[in-house]
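Teaching note: in complex prediction, the entire set of molecules is handled at once rather than each chain in isolation. The prompt given to students was simply: 'Predict the structure of this complex.' The entities are:
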Amino acid sequence: MYSFDFVRPATLDEAVAALAGEEAQALGGGQTLIPTLKQRLASPATLVSLGGIAALKGVSSSGGTLTVGGGTTHGTVAAEAASVYPALAKLAGNIGDPAVRNRGTIGGSLANNDPSACYPSAVLASNATVVTNTREIAADDYFQGLFTTALEPGEIITAVKFPVPQKAAYIKFEQPASRFALVGVFVAKGADGVRVAVTGASEGGVFRWSEAEAALSSNFSAGALDGLSASADGLINDLHGSAAYRAHLIGVLTKRAVAAAG
Amino acid sequence: MPKDHGIGASQKRREDVRFLTGAGQYTDDINVHGQAYVCFLRSDVAHGRINKVDTAEAEAMPGVVRIFTGADFEGVGGLPCGWQVTDRFGQPMKEPAHPVLARGKVRHVGDPIAAVVADSLEEARNAAEAIVLDIEELPAAVNMKAALEAGAPRVHDDLSDNLCYDWGFVEDNRDAVDAAIKAAAHVTTLELVNQRLVANPMEPRVAVGDFNRATGDSTLYTTSQNPHVIRLLMGAFVLGIPEHKLRVVAPDVGGGFGSKIFHYAEEAFCTFAAKAINRPVKWTSSRAEAFLSDAQGRDHVTKIELALDKDNNFTAIRTSTLANMGAYLSTFASSVPTWLHGTLMAGNYKTPLIYVNVKAVFTNTVPVDAYRGAGRPEATFQLERVIDKAARELGVDPIALRRQNFITQFPYATPVAVEYDTGNYVATMDRLEEIADLSGFAARRKASEAKGMLRGLGVNCYIEACGIAPSNLVGQLGARAGLYDAATVRVNATGSISVMVGAHSHGQGHETVFPQVIAEMLGIDESMVEIVHGDSSKIPFGMGTYGSRSLAVCGSAMVRATEKIINKSKKIAAHMMEAAEADIELKDGKFSVAGTDKSVAWGDVTLAAYVPHNYPLEDIEPGLEETAFYDPSNFTYPSGAYACEVEVDPGTGKVTIEKFAAVDDFGNVVNPMIVEGQVHGGIGQGIGQALLENCVYDENGQLLSASFMDYAMPRASDVPFYQVDHSCATPCTHNPLGVKGCGEAGAIGSPPSVVNAVIDALQSGGHNVTHIDMPVSPHRVWQAMNG
Ligand SMILES: Cc1cc2nc3c(=O)[nH]c(=O)nc-3n(C[C@H](O)[C@H](O)[C@H](O)COP(=O)(O)OP(=O)(O)OC[C@H]3O[C@@H](n4cnc5c(N)ncnc54)[C@H](O)[C@@H]3O)c2cc1C
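The expected output is the structure of the full assembly:
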């Protein structure tokens, strides 16, 4: 690690002000950022911890919408979203290990937008809204490619609003070493139709599989996907799986997600 | 009633109290007053010419004490290789120089170029980043086949090519084997890769060098499995420090799996630098550095042919293997694919003719050396896979084919130079069929199929040669060291005992097991016995722990020393009771005179030895301390039969291990619980190799699996509950305890049954798949299913 200054504001306003400083960076649970610092791959001048801001934490629901504070840990979502949005709670409960879940936050995961992360698929499939200190961003506008999002420098994710779908499930096929998603598919059937979001597979990050959405919107059953196959174009080809294998997994996992959603 | 005392008791490991409560003393816990810290600047290219290493700016950075480069080691020896292999033509292997810090060229990613010593680690890292390197990158030799082709980039400019040796074994059998294969009724051929692995012990390597200006003594604290071996190699061959001026301490060590046998550059560096700057010097490897600097394991590419007659008797085996040495010869690298591999090719079977060819190859990758099993897993894997393939080709039951060819008479001289003393492969297989409930497999397969899963059963046998090793034999084979071991039994005045042993415990539980043996011999409580190990200034010159040797070799030395203690104490007891020495019996910690009610307690005799007021001083010396060196007359030959059942998800190719049964013949067992633990750990590593672990370089020699994000270690959820059995024991005939060694068996014996099971599952699903290379990842299974 290179040396840096550390601040831990108690309010959002203070955090926003601190992040306006030269080379300041937000710190969520640190599960991505701290290892990066340890390897000297980043050198912020100031780390602004969001951990002291009570307003960013917690899970609440009203009127069919589940709101998760931007600083809420995966562990809290796993426990507190279970009754309202079980598919989301289950996803959170399978991220990393207990240490990661007890520190890592939804805001950190979405700001990072790792192409193999789990949450982006839930946000995109649920048609959720990412709320920041300045605006609300629709999921379809938020994810802009590998480690790239609509966030401006210094912008803080304060909450994510999930319209709770009628049916939903997430199936993650683990990369054997990291246990991130080699491919993960989130299927959500909401009032406006079915959305299918795929993570882990594409060089462009999380994406929607529109053919499957169309097929499932008219017939929400695994059988509706027979004969459909995802294209391998632009999919990741690495040590753990070829693009063709990932394309194959998208098909298999989507069917399994539909079956699991019931 | 299971025993709770002495040999055969499953006593809990006494060392676990400190390990599990955070009271262990590991090398990184050692901080010497005034120590400075080292950061190695390592090559980020696999192959390159060093034009210039400019340290001027870095030298001026805050906290920097001194920066060393290859030039500082001009007068210093290179890291030695401990085993000279002679090739098929009678020529010695090629043995290129292995400098402490790179000179002239860098030869793998991670090769150390410079070392910054500074007041703090942060300052050392900062200065290392400020060193300006001018390195001209050269094309790298990575793939072994390509590295042997004419015109391939040469790893060592002073060698004619990248071939370290071309070894044939038994060379005199070559023609006869060729003829037998020609004449065979059936020949099964299998080409396979035994992939490279990273050992990844939980504790990364650490070295602390200290120099005492007043006495001229050097001390090295290091994460080693064999402190005396390090003292010998580093003192005699690298730094020129005589033994009495060099102390090597390996305190608690958090796992080694072979990777901490070898003498490493960082150890020599810290010892050298401490003297050069007259200040203690400490280096602690990061996990990232460990991936680039710990010797790696396996990495063989093999073709094996098994010839059978018309009745399915094995008639000949011929193998040809490329074995990766990496960029330099690590300490025992040359012996692994030769003497630890070729001698195992008979396995459990009476194949009359065997020929093994091994070409060892230098590449621009991290050096490869022994890793749990070392050569024996590679031998077992090819043999047990080719037998399975043969059974399928011939349409016979793989277990029946094995049984038909089992060795049944012991001792048995194999055609590959070793003689098995004991074993009972039939009984072992019988027991396996029972505990693995093989007769219930068909029903379990049906149940899996009903869930849409494919189920497979894989079985294999293994034999290993351990209890390493008879010195005269290995000397003939090229070893540059003896492989005996030593123990000193020091009985204290009040009867408590300290045993100084050459073996080193880094997970094996010696501190628990060795006292059980002494307690059994003397009839005293284990709590009176303490094991001292790991410090060259305290222990006799023993060779450390690897090759499942500790109890078989060092334990035997301890038994011999204890026998001397018993003889002497009987003399003392005879004097005390005014009886004839021949009439003295030792039982339950008491000496008595046969046929009388006269007795003296253990503690009375030991006290007399140290307070010799009433003592036969004219016949024997006071004191009660004995040392014995033990050199085994043969290897030991543990054997076993393993069965694995897997489910394969046909949708994703994912393999899940549903059942795993292991029957091992370890001879006599001192602590069954610890033996089971060793088997569990070994199988875990074997499953890791079979399904998960893969050390991969790209064509430029960059390590792609350079962290746990890409290098898949087995975790608890990847392994099943094991059924482990060691009831089919045939005690070793040539060591006093009748023990064979159990440390490597699991890792040697498990990979073939896992892969055999996957092939069985796929074939049951109608997929004509005959082989998948390890790791049998979901991706590879899917590719195999989709042809
Ligand atoms: C061993 C391990 C296993 C893992 N497994 C998985 C897995 O299976 N699936 C998965 O999805 N993830 C996994 N992760 C990643 C984990 O979910 C991280 O917690 C997450 O990616 C980052 O969240 P964080 O709160 O720790 O963010 P940090 O590491 O603190 O920050 C990450 C980035 O987000 C920024 N940031 C943080 N909070 C905010 C905010 N509220 N608003 C704006 N920007 C912010 C930071 O500035 C930084 O750039 C794993 C991580 C580890 C270490």
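Point out the following to students. The mean pLDDT of chain A is 97. The two ends of chain A are 48 Å apart (CA to CA).
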